[in-house]
Specification:
Elements (H helix, E strand, L loop, with lengths): L2 H35 L11 H14 L3 H14 L4 H13 L3 H14 L4 H13 L3 H14 L4 H13 L3 H14 L1 H10 L3
Helix pairs in contact: 1-2, 2-3, 2-4, 3-4, 4-5, 5-6, 6-7, 6-8, 7-8, 8-9, 8-10, 9-10
Length: 195
């Protein structure tokens, strides 16, 4: 493996880690704080079984034990079929386990529940990208950016997908956008654009 390939892998791992942490960490902290203090949930009811299962899944997930976390998220959606956090957890666990089709289905469920959730569209785009379904990755990332125009990670993956489809001009446009959003992502994308 060349130094450039190692760097690309490291950047991809970093992107995914940032994506996961930005979604799950606030939930884990809030859920743990509520459980430790015995506080009631926002609607005045004690924690539901689905929330308890999701919290257990989040604990395994935070330790990168994705195979152990997944059944808790799956049981949570059986308890509550519209539980966004649990579906997102299913998507993320399946993604990390290399089960990209299952991740796609879970992210689609998140979008069904909350169509304006940019991170779900981005997760969908990354999973499509991993399956070499670049046109679908482009559409999912475009949707994430439509919802959140300054979503640097989505612009980065969109640029990569454009490159995979041979659209150098659109990849360069994403590079120009990224220069104002995240110089590290901009540089990584620029270095992959054929000269």
């Amino acid at each position: 493996m060349t130094g450039g390939e190692s760097m690309r892998k490291a950047v991809c791992v970093l992107l995914i880690t940032l994506f996961i942490c930005s979604f799950f960490l606030p939930f884990v902290q809030a859920e743990e704080a509520g459980l430790e203090s015995g506080q009631e949930k926002g609607n005045g009811e004690q924690s539901t079984a689905a929330e308890e299962l999701c919290l257990a899944g989040l604990r395994f997930f935070s330790e990168e034990k994705f195979a152990e976390a997944l059944p808790f998220f799956e049981r949570a959606v059986k308890e509550n079929p519209d539980y966004l956090k649990a579906y997102f957890g299913i998507g993320e666990c399946n993604y990390h386990l290399g089960r990209y089709e299952e991740a796609i289905e879970a992210f689609k469920q998140v979008i069904r529940i909350e169509p304006g959730y940019a991170k779900a569209h981005y997760g969908l785009g990354v999973a499509y990208y991993k399956l070499d379904r670049f046109k679908e990755a482009i559409e999912a990332c475009k949707q994430a950016i439509h919802i959140k125009p300054d979503y640097a990670e989505a612009h980065f993956v969109l640029g990569l997908a454009y490159l995979k489809t041979g659209d150098k001009g659109s990849a360069l446009e994403e590079y120009r956008i990224l220069k104002n959003l995240n110089s590290d992502f901009a540089e990584q994308l620029f270095n992959r654009i054929p000269k």
